[in-house]
Structures are given as structure tokens and as C-alpha cells.
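Deliverable D5.2: sample structural annotation.
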Amino acid sequence: MKLVTFAFIFSLMWAKASFASETDLARIVALQEAKIQALTKELETRIKPDLESCKNANNKASWAEGRLCFLSNGACPAGFTKQAGHIRGMRIYQDVNNAASYLTPANFGDSSIGWHGGTPYRYGEYAGDLHLSACCR
């Protein structure tokens, strides 16, 4: 649109230098305005349907067909059922000088991995906890 505006202004400057009559200038301005309106209509005709289809696609959740699971974070979408499981007190090698090198606690939505009892070494080598929660169909 900036290019069209620049072309319009340039044509006005050229017209002012070339024609002395205000009638000629008014006719040129009217022609340029008509061109701008036609370009605007053409852009709306070509681009608006694409924008609408993008909006519609973004407002709808579409999932791949068949069996599907993903980690949950709150309620599952329609058509999916929450499944959860855990391993508590998992035996894990421990380095007393660097506990984080073998287990780094983290949360992934409703799922987590961490130290059994919340702190390293509290239960000896049975220190790992893994909790998984997924939405499946």
C-alpha cells in the first residue's frame, strides 16, 4: 500500500509540473483514487478468503486419526481420556558429590520426575520418582 501511495504522490507532483489547469489535476486525482479503490477491492477479494480460512483452521483443534497419547496439562480435550501412572522409590545410582548428574527434577504439565521424598539420599539408593499423566484415545 505504501508503494501505491508513493506512486500516487509522485503522479500528483508530475501532474502539477506538467499541467496548469486545476481541472486536469482534479481528473488525474480522480483517476488515481479509482485505481487505488480497484487495487484495494482486488486485494480484499484475493486475500480475505485466505485470512478467513486461516482463522477457521486455527480455531478448530484437529488431531491425527488413530490412537494418540500426549502428556496432559489439566483437563483432556474432548474425545481423550486421562491416563496416569507412577514409579515410586525407583532404584537409581547416586553420586554423593553430584546428585543432579543422575536425576534432575522437572515437571512436564501434570507429569514429573523427582527425588522420592523430595530430597536426594533420603531413602538411600531408592531415590527416584516418576509420575506420568497423559491424554489418550
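Annotation notes: Residues 8 and 131 are 65 Å apart (CA to CA). The chain has two domains: 2-59, 69-136.
The annotation will be released with the project's public dataset once the embargo ends.
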